[in-house]
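Can anyone check this?
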Amino acid sequence: MSKKARAIAFYLPQYHPVPENDAFWGKGFTEWTNVTKAKPLFKGHKQPKLPADLGFYDLRVAEVRAQQAQLAKDAGIEAFCYWHYWFGNGVRVLEKIFDEVLTSKQPDFPFCLGWANESWTGKWHGMNDEFLFKQIYPGQKDFKAHFNTVLPAFKDKRYFTVNGQPLFLIYNPRQIPEPVSFTNYWQQLAKEAGLPGIYFVGVDNKWEPEEYGFSASVTNAPWAGKIFPARKFKNSHRILAALGTERPFIYDYEKYVSLRTSQPLHLKECPLVVPNWDNTPRSGNKGRILWGSTPEKYGKWLNDAVQKVQHRPKEERIVFIKSWNEWAEGNYLEPCREFGHEFLNQTKKALIS
């Protein structure tokens, strides 16, 4: 048995209460709060999306994390990319889960970090632009403090590397003031710490990563960069009258996959595959939906992505999957009540030979 590509699944550490979310959203808020309150917004719209085997888990439970890792490993996924939040001046949130993974040495499953360098705003949840956390960049002293915070992870034997370099993903690379100065500085700090360097991956749709000091890129969410025009629901989908004039945007999953698979990768681009998307649990009638996803259609897309990286050196045959457990965005691989293990089965079929 061998893997045809190095698949990394994005991992959201939001499934446990934290004081900041309690204060902003109400006591006991987790991502499950959005998931369970979701309702169908039109005929044929399947909500809520509910978990199967793992249930409404709390990530503070180590056994849950072990079960997730085993499911991912069995499906051929090589690593989780934990979303990591550093808002500047040492302000962090949702760090507890990864810190426990790091210090406990469990689960014994590879990981990397993705810096989600965006402000937290109510807009994501269909509200106004009120900030819960604002992303800032205080300067080099803060960059060094940030590096020293993640250095123990970089040195962990489980950390996902490319040619020996720990992979560090940045969600919005061009938002960083003078990104080349940032990446050069971290490369310097890495070598001073005894590392061979850092394999920076930036989330961006149209750019040359090397110009910004990055090794590779990966595209963003399906509609980012206006890849194809959105359309409102027509009369063929009867919207519940209570929605009024505000309606979700719909994108055809199969057409989007056809578009993505017909395009060659850029020289340094890692393909991104999305099992599904429906963020109406968060954004309500302002949400966006990839319509008509099935495990089989996802499997064809993933297989295409795997084939497109076969000409690359083995270490660089990287494919990102968005995501492992973004339940309130409707993109997840974990077992669900609608499809059971089928997304995982399709993942295994595409990745393992």
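Reply from J.R.: I decoded it. The first helix runs from residue 19 to 25.
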